[in-house]
From TrEMBL:
Family: Belongs to the peptidase M17 family.
Record-linked InterPro entries: Leucine_aapep/pepB, Macro_dom-like, Peptidase_M17_C, Peptidase_M17_N_1
Name of this protein: M17 family metallopeptidase
Pfam families in alphabetical order: Peptidase_M17, Peptidase_M17_N_1
Domain of life according to the entry: Bacteria
Ranges of residues in domain Cytosol aminopeptidase: 307-314
Lineage summary: Bacteria, Pseudomonadati, Pseudomonadota, Alphaproteobacteria, Rhodobacterales
Record flagged with keyword Repeat: no
Organism, as annotated: Tateyamaria armeniaca
Keywords, alphabetical: Aminopeptidase, Hydrolase, Manganese, Protease
Length: 459
C-alpha cells in the first residue's frame, strides 16, 4: 500500500481532469485520432470515467471525468473515482483547479490506494500520481497517512485490537515522532484516581488502561481525548447480535485522535499536543458493573448507572477531568458515542458540540474546503435536568429516548470547567464503497480539524 506521491518523472503520463462542459472544447484542441477514440469510448466527462489514449503499444495520455457542479455536490474525491480505474503507471495531473481543491483531489488519489490487507492480500492500485505543482505535498501525505492509521485501527478486529494492542499502536506513533508516552494499567487506575475507566474495563481479561501521549514544547496546548472501547458487548445490558456486529469500531474515537495526532506531528504544527485514550473492553463477567450502581468519578461527581451500554461517556469523563486539570487552550473529544447521532445526521456527517463560536466558524469553513462534512449541535442547557437522576449527580442513560446525542454531550461537558471544549460524536465507518473511501473504518472530522486548528489556536 503506497500513500505517497510518485517521484518526479519527466515521462509521467499526462492525465487531464475534464468536467462535462469542457470535454468538447478540449477535444477540439486534439488531433482527429484522439477525438475518434473518445467518441468510440463514449467519454463524456462524467465522474468515474477514465479513458487512456494509446500510442506505440503504450499510453500516450489519459482523461478522467470531473462531472458537473450538481454531480460533484453529491460526492467527494471526484478525481479518485476515475483514477482508481487507470492502469498501472506514473501520472502527471493537468487540471484547472484552485490550489485548495487541487490539494483535496490529490489527497483523494492517495486515499484511493488504501488497502486493509492484514488478513488477505489485496490488489494494489497501480496508478501513481506525481505531486501536482502548487500543493503542499508533505501536508497531503501527512493527511493520507493519518487517515490510513485511523482506518487500519478501526478495521482491525477486537481479537487483535484490544486495549494492549491499542496501547502498542500509540507507542509506535509516539516512537515515530519522538513523543513521550505513559500508560496506567489495571488496578493502577484506582491508585491514580481513574475509577470509572477501571470499573468499565475490569470485567475483561485484557486490563483497562489510560494512554497519555505528549509532544511539542512550545505554543498553545491542545488536548485530544479519544474513546477507546475496543469492543462493546453492552455489558450486563447486553446488546442484541445485530447491534454488536460492528462493535470493533467502538474505539473509533481513539483511532481518530491518533490519526489527527499523526497529521499534527508529521507537519510539525507549533503546538503542545496531548493525547488521552481510555482503553477498555466492556465485557460480561461476574465482576462487571451493574445497572443501578453508583460510581464516583475522578472529578468527584457521582454517576448512577441506568444502562451499562452507555459506558463510553464514563471512561471519557475520567479522561476529560484529567485533561481539564491541565487547563489547555482547547480540549477536543472524539467518540463513537450514540446511535442518536446517526439517526440525526446519518453515517457521513460528524456532529459536534462547542460553545466557542469562533472555533465553530473555523471548523465549518475548513470542513467545506476539505470535503470533510460536520454539523453543529447545541449544548442545550434546558436539557441539563435530563441527566440529573436525583439519587446521584448524573445519570449515564436518561430515560425517555429524547435528544440522546445532546444529553451525552452535556454529560461530558460536566467534566470540563477550565478550557474551551469541543465534542465529536462520530460514526467511524463507511457503510459502502465510495471513491477514496473503501467500505470499513474511516476518519471523520479529522481533516477538517487539522485545517482549522491554526485558526482556532491563533497560530
Amino acid at each position: 500500500m503506497t500513500l505517497a506521491f510518485a517521484a518526479h518523472d519527466p515521462d509521467a503520463i499526462p492525465v487531464h481532469l475534464l468536467a462535462e462542459d469542457v470535454v468538447q472544447s478540449w477535444l477540439d484542441t486534439q488531433d482527429e485520432a484522439v477525438r475518434k477514440w473518445a467518441k468510440a469510448h463514449r467519454f463524456t466527462g462524467a465522474i468515474g470515467q477514465a479513458l487512456t489514449f494509446p500510442r506505440d503499444g503504450g499510453v500516450a495520455m489519459a482523461a478522467v471525468g470531473y462531472g458537473t457542479p450538481k454531480s460533484r455536490s453529491r460526492a467527494r474525491f471526484h478525481l479518485a473515482a476515475g483514477a482508481a480505474r487507470l492502469p498501472a503507471g506514473t501520472y502527471a495531473l493537468h487540471a484547472d483547479l484552485d490550489p485548495q481543491t487541487l490539494e483535496v483531489e490529490a489527497l483523494g488519489w492517495l486515499l484511493a490506494g488504501y488497502r486493509y490487507d492484514r488478513y488477505k492480500d489485496q490488489s494494489a492500485m497501480g496508478a501513481r500520481l506525481v505531486a501536482p505543482e502548487g500543493i503542499d505535498a508533505t501536508r497531503v501525505e501527512a493527511q493520507a497517512h493519518g487517515e490510513a492509521l485511523t482506518r487500519t485501527l478501526i478495521n482491525t478486529p477486537a481479537s487483535d485490537m484490544g486495549p494492549p494492542d491499542l496501547e502498542a499502536a500509540a507507542r509506535v506513533l509516539a516512537d515515530q515522532f519522538g513523543a513521550l508516552i505513559t500508560v496506567i494499567t489495571g488496578d493502577g487506575l484506582l491508585a491514580a484516581n481513574f475509577p470509572m475507566i477501571h470499573t468499565v474495563g475490569r470485567a475483561s481479561d485484557r486490563a483497562p488502561r489510560l494512554i497519555d501521549m505528549t509532544w511539542g514544547n512550545a505554543g498553545p496546548q491542545l488536548t485530544l481525548v479519544g474513546k477507546g472501547v475496543c469492543f462493546d458487548t453492552g455489558g450486563l445490558n447486553l446488546k442484541p447480535g445485530a447491534s454488536m456486529g460492528l462493535m470493533k469500531k467502538d474505539m473509533g474515537g481513539s483511532a481518530a485522535v491518533l490519526g489527527l495526532a499523526h497529521m499534527i506531528m508529521a507537519t510539525g504544527m507549533p503546538i503542545r499536543l496531548r493525547v488521552l485514550i481510555p482503553a477498555v473492553e466492556n465485557s460480561v463477567a461476574g465482576n462487571a458493573f451493574r445497572p443501578q450502581d453508583i460510581l464516583t468519578s475522578r472529578k468527584g461527581l457521582t454517576v448512577e448507572i441506568n444502562n451499562t451500554d452507555a459506558e463510553g461517556r464514563l471512561v471519557l469523563a475520567d479522561a476529560l477531568a484529567l485533561a481539564d486539570e491541565g487547563k489547555p487552550d482547547l480540549i477536543i473529544s472524539m467518540a463513537t458515542l450514540t446511535g442518536a447521532a446517526r439517526v440525526a445526521v446519518g453515517p457521513d456527517i460528524a456532529p459536534y458540540f462547542t460553545d466557542d463560536a469562533s472555533v465553530a466558524t473555523a471548523l465549518e469553513d475548513s470542513a467545506q474546503t476539505q470535503a470533510d462534512p460536520v454539523w453543529r449541535l447545541p449544548f442545550h442547557a434546558p436539557y441539563e435536568s435530563m441527566i440529573e437522576p436525583g439519587i446521584a449527580d448524573l445519570d449515564n442513560a436518561p430515560k425517555g429516548g429524547f435528544a440522546g446525542t445532546i444529553t451525552a454531550a452535556l454529560f461530558l461537558r460536566r467534566f470540563v470547567e477550565h478550557s474551551p471544549y469541543m465534542h465529536f460524536d462520530i460514526y467511524g465507518w463507511q457503510p459502502s464503497d465510495a471513491p477514496a473511501r473503501a467500505k470499513g473504518g474511516v476518519g471523520q472530522a479529522t481533516r477538517a480539524l487539522f485545517a482549522a486548528l491554526p485558526r482556532a489556536l491563533d497560530l
